[in-house]
Write a structure and sequence with these properties.
elongated; alpha+beta; two-stranded antiparallel sheet; about 230 residues; about 40% helix; single chain; 5 helices
C-alpha cells in the first residue's frame, strides 16, 4: 500500500510539473493576444474618432473664411497681359462665366495650406473654431499642429479643369482636412511577450498614425460677402 501511494504521489508531482511547463508556454501567448486586442482596439478607436474629427473640420472650413493666409473670398479677373498677350485691348470675360471654361477666365490662385497651430498663432477665427470643435475627438497626444487644412482649385481631369467657381463669384476650392505627423504609442509590452513566447520581435512601441484626410468643395468662404 505504501509503495502504491509513493507511485501515485510521484505521478501527481509529475503532472503538476507538466502543468507548470504548459502554463509557462501558454501564458505569454495568451497575454500577447489579450494585450494586442487592447492596444489595437485603442488604435482602431483613435482612427475612427480622428476621421470623424476631419469630417467635422472640413465641414466648418468650407463655410468659413480661410484658416490659412492667401485664401481669397471671391474669384478675380486675371491680369489682362497673361490672359491674352497678343491683344493690346483684350475683352474681359463676363462676370458669371465658369472658371473651368478656360484657364484664362479666372485668376489663378496658389494652393494655400497650413496647420491649425499656424492659424491659431495669428488668432485666425476659423482655425480656432475648427480646433475647439474637434479637440475632444482627436487622439490624446494630438495638438493643433497635427491637423492640416489645404485649399486647392487646381485639380485637372485629363485636359479639363475641375475649377468649380465662376468669375465674380465666391472662391470655390477643394478644402482638405488631414491628420499629419501624429504618432500612436502602444502602452502594452507586446514585444516583450513575443520574446517570452520564443519569438524574435521587431515590433515598435510607437508607430506612425494614418494620414487620414477628408475633402469637400467649399461653399462660400466669404460667408456671403463678395470681397
Amino acid at each position: 500500500m505504501t509503495r502504491a501511494f509513493h507511485i501515485l504521489g510521484g505521478f501527481v508531482r509529475r503532472e503538476r510539473g507538466a502543468v507548470l511547463v504548459e502554463l509557462a508556454v501558454v501564458l505569454p501567448i495568451f497575454l500577447l493576444i489579450f494585450l494586442g486586442i487592447i492596444d489595437f482596439g485603442r488604435l482602431g478607436y483613435d482612427v475612427v474618432t480622428a476621421e470623424k474629427a476631419m469630417q467635422r473640420a472640413v465641414r466648418i472650413a468650407i463655410v468659413r473664411p480661410g484658416a490659412c493666409n492667401g485664401v481669397p473670398g471671391a474669384v478675380a479677373i486675371p491680369d489682362t497681359t497673361s490672359r491674352d498677350p497678343g491683344n493690346s485691348d483684350p475683352i474681359a470675360p463676363r462676370f458669371g462665366t465658369a472658371c473651368n471654361q478656360s484657364g484664362s477666365i479666372c485668376a489663378q490662385v496658389a494652393q494655400s495650406t497650413c496647420s491649425l497651430a499656424q492659424g491659431i498663432a495669428v488668432a485666425n477665427p476659423t482655425a480656432i473654431e475648427i480646433w475647439n470643435s474637434i479637440d475632444d475627438l482627436m487622439p490624446g497626444k494630438a495638438t493643433a499642429a497635427n491637423v492640416r487644412i489645404t485649399y486647392d482649385d487646381s485639380a485637372i481631369l485629363g485636359s479639363t479643369s475641375l475649377r468649380l467657381g465662376f468669375l465674380g463669384g465666391p472662391y470655390v476650392p477643394i478644402v482638405t482636412a488631414q491628420v499629419q505627423n501624429l504618432q500612436f504609442n502602444f502602452v502594452t509590452p507586446i514585444s516583450g511577450f513575443v520574446s517570452m513566447a520564443g519569438g524574435t520581435s521587431t515590433f515598435a512601441q510607437t508607430v506612425q498614425f494614418p494620414a487620414l484626410s477628408v475633402s469637400l468643395p467649399a461653399e462660400d468662404l466669404a460667408q456671403g460677402e463678395n470681397g
